[in-house]
Amino acid sequence: MTYVIVDGMSVEIIVLSVLRAGPVHGYELKRRVARPSLTPLSNNSLYPMLRRFEQQGLVTKSVEEHESVPPRNVYAITDAGRERLTALLSALPPELATDDEEFLMRLGFFEELPIANRRAIVAARLAALDASAATVSTLLDENSGKGTSPKHEWRAEVMSHVLQTLASERAWTLTIGKKAGV
Fold it and tell me: Which helix (H) or strand (E) holds 106?
């Protein structure tokens, strides 16, 4: 089965993890989805995703009738949905490893993952951080030969800050990896 990645994988992880706790209607699901980036999940993202999940057999939809309110669609995760959630959590593709939300999402589920998967996720993150630092270092070196005009000084300041941030994130990732038994 082929899966489509929409807005990274973290939204899929969050939605499936909320559904793993039990069936829920769309409005409540949207309310429970709290992304680390604080970007609200819109109906234009949520409901097409739920339709796609339903078509892929990852969730089921039933209609819940109530006397005083309109009928609501209730979504529940299937065994295939649980398998998809596990697969999403178990790997951090290189193209997503630079994304803080993608890394932190998986880190939040580390207790559920085998050590080998934790190790691969940490390694992917470290490789992405190292690649970013190398790119910024190259830009900083190229910028240093451009003279001392104010615009170059500010660029150098920004790039130095980015390098410090990447170094700090790398150190933290190593620490968290050790804590996770990696």
Answer: helix 100-107
Beta bridge partners of 74: 25, 62
What is the C-alpha to C-alpha distance for residues 139 and 83, in angstroms, rounded to an integer?
A: 42
Residue 8, sorted as left (phi over 0), alpha (psi -120 to 50) or beta, turns out to be: left
Tell me, what DSSP letter sits at residue 61?
A: E
CA nearest to 176, candidates 102, 125, 116 = 125
15-28 pLDDT per residue, tens? 999 999 999 998 88
Residues 114, 181: Cα–Cα separation, whole Å: 10
Q: Name the residue with tokens 């089965």.
A: 1
User: Which among 76, 69, 66 has a CA at the least distance from the CA of 25?
Assistant: 76
Report whether 110 contacts 60 (CB < 8 A): no
pTM of the predicted model as reported, rounded to 2 decimal places:
0.81
Q: Are 62 and 74 in contact (CB under 8 A)?
A: yes
